[in-house]
Structure formats: structure tokens, C-alpha cells
Specification:
The structure is a single chain. The chain has helices spanning about 1-40, 40-45, 65-70, and strands spanning about 50-55, 60, 80-95, 95-105, 115-125, 130-135. It is about 40% helix and about 45% strand.
């Protein structure tokens, strides 16, 4: 009986710790989409870890290259698209790393859209979770 009670108490206190990473990264992705949709490139830049790498079918792209391309999207009246995430799953890797994956959708004014699956590894920093590596 005492053993079951102790185990129940430990599970009660450990559940919020597990849920915190999932909630924090889900909120971060929701906020990233909101900032993308409003064109806040300063926040978007801060989302990425200094050592960030994007891996695509075309190869690897550094943080500087990726941020530069993000800043040019939508300039001169171009359509950035409206970003939305769905089906997000978050898994802890260790105390300071987690992975999130799901579907990203960009919907454009002309009715077209781009959907892609992504996975991102995050590192917990003193400034919050930062995207370290993304594959899409």
C-alpha cells in the first residue's frame, strides 16, 4: 500500500515535468507561425540556435543563409504564405534536447498551398528552446 502511494505521488510530480517540454515547444511553434504570418523576422531569427542547420533535399543550409532567405521572402509585396502546423508530436531526448515533428502548411493568396512534414531538434538554452536542426 505504501509503495503504491509513493509511486503514485512520484508519478503525479513527474507528469508535469514531461508535459512541460511538450507544452513549451508546441507553444513556441504556434508563436513562430503567428510571427511568420505577421512578418516578424526579428522573432523568427531568434527562434534559431546560433548553430542551426536546415537539411533539405538540396543539401544543408546554415542559420545565416536560412535567415537571409526568410528576410527576403515577402519583400516587394511578395506572398509569404500563411503558416500553420498540425499533428505536432514532441519527445524529450534528454534534459536539454527534444525533437518535434509534424506537418507544416503554407497557404498562399492565390489558393495554392505547400505541405511538408518536418522534424526539428531543439536545445534548451537560458533563453528558451531554440531550433538546432530541422529536416523538411
Amino acid at each position: 500500500m505504501a509503495r503504491t502511494l509513493l509511486l503514485s505521488i512520484l508519478m503525479l510530480f513527474s507528469a508535469p515535468l514531461i508535459a512541460d517540454t511538450e507544452n513549451e515547444i508546441t507553444i513556441l511553434l504556434d508563436y513562430y507561425a503567428e510571427m511568420w504570418n505577421t512578418g516578424d523576422t526579428d522573432f523568427i531569427t531568434s527562434y534559431f540556435h546560433p548553430e542551426f542547420v536546415l537539411v533539405s533535399d538540396d543539401g544543408t543550409i546554415t542559420r545565416a543563409q536560412h535567415v537571409s532567405s526568410i528576410r527576403t521572402i515577402g519583400q516587394n509585396g511578395g506572398d509569404r504564405g500563411e503558416l500553420d502546423y498540425s499533428g505536432i508530436r514532441v519527445k524529450d531526448l534528454d534534459d536539454s534536447h527534444a525533437v518535434a515533428y509534424g506537418k507544416a502548411t503554407l497557404k498562399f493568396e492565390d489558393g495554392s498551398s505547400i505541405e511538408s512534414w518536418f522534424s526539428t531538434v531543439y536545445e534548451k538554452t537560458p533563453f528558451g528552446w531554440k531550433a538546432l536542426l530541422t529536416r523538411n
